[in-house]
Amino acid sequence: MRNRCSFTCIFVAATLLVSAAVAQQVLTESGTVSGIRADGLTLYKGIPFAAPPVGDLRWRPPVPAAAWIGTRKADAFAPACMQVGVSMPGEIPPAVSEDCLYLNIWTPAKTAHEHLPVIVWIYGGGYINGSASMPLYWGDRLAQKGVVVVTIAYRLGPLGFLALPELTRESAHHSSGNYGLMDQVAALQWIQRNIGAFGGDPRCVTIAGQSSGSISVSILMASPLAKGLFQRAIGESGGLFEPLQLGPKYLLTNAEHDGDKYAASVGAATLKELRRLPATLLTGNAGGIVHAVIEPYVLPLSPYEAFALGEQNDVPLLIGSNADEARSLVDVQHDTAASFDSDLERSVGQLPPALLAAYPHATDVEARQAQLGLERDLRFGWDMWAWARLQAGTGKSPVFYYSFRQQPPFPADSVYAGWGASHFAELWYVFDHLDQSPWSWTTADRKLAGEMSSYWVNFARSGDPNGPGLPPWPGFTNVKSKVQYLGDPITVGGVANIQGLSVFDSVYTVVRGKPFAAQ
Length: 519
Known about the structure:
Elements: H1 2-14, E1 23-27, E2 32-38, E3 41-48, E4 71-73, E5 80-81, E6 96-97, E7 102-107, E8 116-122, H2 140-143, E9 148-152, H3 157-161, H4 165-170, H5 179-194, E10 200-210, H6 212-222, E11 232-236, H7 252-265, H8 271-276, H9 279-284, H10 303-308, E12 317-322, H11 340-348, H12 353-357, H13 364-394, E13 399-404, H14 427-430, H15 443-462, E14 483-486, E15 491-493, H16 498-512
Parallel strand pairs: 2-4, 5-6, 8-9, 8-10, 10-11, 11-12, 12-13, 13-14
Antiparallel strand pairs: 1-2, 2-3, 3-7, 7-9, 14-15
């Protein structure tokens, strides 16, 4: 901590914040960067927080970025990390490169002495795609409410999560995989050392993410490597809490075995050959190498085990999921009662009869609704409920739990038609970016966007989303399971879809061989 504070003091003292309308300069640990000031904010694009993970640095922990002489213009977003497809339907594919470890900063600070709260956004995309520069994630509207917003990049797919016996042997930590998570930690370490120069407070950092970005938040709360790097956490629709018996692929030995098969599939007999292959070849054939690994360095315990033992990074937590998560992810148009069981098994594998029975599917209409409900609860609902209960049970910091229920006015002729309050849908409101999409937003939509973005900013500021002019948001406890229903209007209710979630709990208890830890 002493070294961290001394670095910050040096950078704050050396910071040059120019009040001209065009550019502002800040001295970071690697050199001076200049950003563009407009609309009361300064935006810095494409600042390197680590060296390019290429050549011999491929599949290694990130190392510091090289220093530069003079002033580096931070006026263009860096390419996204190598990936396949896009993270959201309708998204314009980003430019990509293996040289991708950069971050972006939106700050309202005019001096380096404002000590503003910091929100660090971790993008989603199933660990196979995603971008720190997607317009929906831009931090301008949140920054105008008094926070510094940082969006960070991290390696994806096989380049970010490959485990191999040979990689484990060469590692000083006797582990492999999780390079993308190491990138996230490296970005948070960079923020600790540098964000004070941008007017941010390194002692008031909130990590936030959606989908696999939210899974990352759950992992960072469980990781000893991330201890002290953040003081609040926000998770939207994603966590990693299922029994490991149902996900043996996460264990290092199994991940190494999958890595061996992957290496053979791309024609590489050795790690040296793998490091010579083009990045496009490696990402074009992901081979299922798109998930975190339980290994000794980043994640020695699964998030469930870490929370159950009370060993999580114990910080205030704001989490939740959406009422219609699966509508944007699952095509149920052709589902029938007769094919329900077989279709579901192809999608997620064989499920216990008790789970299937909890989602009635006697008719075709019921079958379509059952698949949406089961996928919603399986992929998102149970994890968020488990996460809330674990933190409320073993942590000392508060939990604030939401259910997003607003249905955006997705046009009937758009790729989003019929989504409702689906996966992704809350993002327009959280970032207060309704005007990025020319849809028929209502007064109620705009009011909710203002309220949700204020909740998120308040939480980043104090660890509590409540504030003047906002509907009260009660904390979640295991005695009083109060959930904030984010819609028109905002109300308070119980845990949504509790009947199905309780069946999941019962099944997981049998699989795990012992009751849920928070009971």
